[in-house]
Amino acid sequence: MATRAPLSLKARAIGLLAQREHSRAELRRKLLRIEQQQRERARLAAHEGGLDVEGEGAEEGEEQASGAAAVDALLDTLAAGGYLDETRFVESRLHLRASRFGAQRIQQELAQHGLKLDAEQQASLRETEMERAREVWKKRFGDEPSREAAEQARQTRFLLARGFTPEVVRRLLRA
Q1: So what's the pLDDT on residue 59?
Q2: Which domain holds residue 155?
């Protein structure tokens, strides 16, 4: 049985993007890890085959720098080809998270990717925050608010952890 040749870095990148949108930073991190694994496999195969690997004496840092440059060039190509679009990533993340999380949590997740919401998206989230918080709260705790302090504290912590603002949580639990 013949072994298949590993997919190229570009094929792997397109495969990842076909599954879901990625930010540039996230895709870069994944591709660097894949590139490093491929380089390691090639080095092991060369050693097992008794081949004299060209550039074997090269420093690991040099190899990583060339790998990072190749990944960055690939990311530029993907962005130019329309495969990688950070605006699309932000919209996708917003669509996925808005029904379950508050604006603060969504902004925090995007910041981890080095991205921000534009002013229009922020305003839209703020306008719908109370209704989204109410839906999340109803789904978790039912229609009737609790009068017990301990239960109210638990509900408050839950909603705050979901990224809803303290003001929205206060208004919701008072209603």
Answers
A1: 60
A2: 88-174
Cα 94 to Cα 41, 47, 54, 158, 169: the distances in Å are 38, 48, 47, 20, 21
In a domain, 3, yes or no: no
24-43 pLDDT tens trace: 999 999 999 999 998 888 88
Estimate the share of the chain in helix, then strand, then coil, as percent rounded to the nearest 5: 70, 0, 30
Same domain, 98 and 163: yes
Phi/psi for 119 (5° steps) reads: -60, -40
| Same domain, residue pair 118 and 132 | yes
Pull the structure tokens for residue 82.
């329309």
**Whether residues 80 and 93 fall in one domain:** no
> Residue 1 domain-assigned?
no
Q: How many other C-beta atoms lie within 10 A of the C-beta of residue 7?
A: 13
Assign 164 to helix, strand or coil.
Answer: coil
Pair (57, 102) in one structural domain: no
Pseudo-torsion of CA 145, 94, 117, 167, nearest 10°? 0
* Residue 104 near residue 146, CB atoms below 8 Å: no
Give residue-wise pLDDT tens across range 57-78: 556 667 778 888 999 999 999 9
Number of domains present in the structure of the chain = 2
Determine contact, residues 136/162, Cβ cutoff 8 Å: yes
